[in-house]
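Today's session is about reading a structure prediction critically. Students often jump straight to the picture, but the first step is always the sequence itself: look for stretches that repeat, for charged clusters, for runs of hydrophobic residues. Only then move on to the predicted structure, which in these notes is written as discrete structure tokens rather than atom positions. Here is the chain we will use throughout the hour.
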Amino acid sequence: MMNAKTKNDVERRLSRIVGQIAGVQRMVAEDRYCVDILMQISAVRAALAKASTLLLESHIQTCVTGAFESDDPGDRAAKIDELVRVFDKHCRS
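Below is the predicted structure for this chain, in token form.
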């Protein structure tokens, strides 16, 4: 489970991202220059990537660390599988 600071930071970032997306929608509706829209989309993607990084870091520091400190080899193996899936998915995007 993520700590309060991380949760607050991610929520704040996601709120900003919602605003950025609304801005991109306005740009499209206003027939703004395509390159300007593409640049804003890139900014949204970067903001999402940062939020993802914060969540991943928190997950590793809490859930994954907890699994590796436990005596349950099944729990450790499950966390490894989970991380592999997350990194695989993350690398595709």
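Discussion point for the tutorial: The chain has one domain: 4-92.
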